[in-house]
Amino acid sequence: MLTLENVSAGYGTFQALFGVSLEVRAGEAVAVIGPNGAGKTSLLRVISKVIPLNGGHIAMEGQSLDSVPAHRVIELGIAHVPEHRRLFPRLTVEENLRMGAFINGARSRFDERLAFVYELFPRMKERRHQLAGTMSGGEQQMCAIGRGLMSGPKLLLLDEPSAGLAPVIVQQVFDLVRRIRQEGYTVLIVEQNIQQVLKVVDRAYLLEVGRIKMSGASQELLENDEVRRAYIGL
Ligand SMILES: Nc1ncnc2c1ncn2[C@@H]1O[C@H](COP(=O)(O)OP(=O)(O)O)[C@@H](O)[C@H]1O
Ligand SMILES: [Mg+2]
């Protein structure tokens, strides 16, 4: 579904990604794991074209994204749930969800998609008139993911959905990821919470200082001595 070939990107003269290649197949959940500063957020940003592609190629379902501007990426079926959730704290849950449906195709299907998000996340329906900024971290993450689903994407990019949440809530967030998969969405998730994320994805890539260092089935990485020593602390 999504392929990255030798992708380089950065900020001005600072290079954050060096020749990254990866693939996400339809129906898969794939994680990019790595420590703080590895380039995980930058990787999702270059896929969404929030930052420019400085080298290499990105394609979605065989269509090149190389010269597609950020506002059109969503029309090709890619929704990006950004780092730190980025909700509008003084808007209600429902207003935030509406923000995810601004593209043309989505506007006409707003009611249908909203009903779907509320069915998937009944908590959001209960809270639909609450200001997003007054909800708990876990609920805000649920709202951010719901907003991503409002554009009717095929592929969901999730940037550290568990960051900053209490351990019991982290568990709930990963359960959400499981449910989204069961709904048939393809998921690319970046996480520092390596042990937890490897339990909900099929495959993973290890990113270190902007380069893919290792990749494989989740179980393989969970059992890998280097990964365990460096990242799981076992
Ligand atoms: N807006 C920015 N301007 C300049 N450098 C940035 C910016 N955002 C991130 N970086 C740098 O890019 C590198 C990768 O950052 P990031 O992609 O946020 O990593 P991660 O998400 O894995 O923590 C880091 O060295 C970071 O300091
Ligand atoms: Mg990040």
Automatic annotation (TrEMBL):
Pfam families listed in its UniProt record: ABC_tran
- Taking the record's annotation, the residue ranges forming a coiled coil are none
Q: Which GO terms describe its biological process?
A: L-amino acid transport
Q: Which CDD domains match?
A: ABC_TM1139_LivF_branched
Source taxon at top rank: Bacteria
ABC transporter domain location is 2-234
Keyword Flavoprotein listed? The answer is no
Q: Which PROSITE patterns match?
A: ABC_TRANSPORTER_2 (PS50893)
Task: Provide the GO MF annotations for this entry.
Answer: ATP binding; ATP hydrolysis activity; branched-chain amino acid transmembrane transporter activity
Q: Does the keyword ATP-binding apply?
A: yes
The entry sums up its family as follows:
Belongs to the ABC transporter superfamily.
Name of the protein this chain belongs to: ABC transporter ATP-binding protein
Q: Which organism is it from?
A: Thalassobaculum fulvum
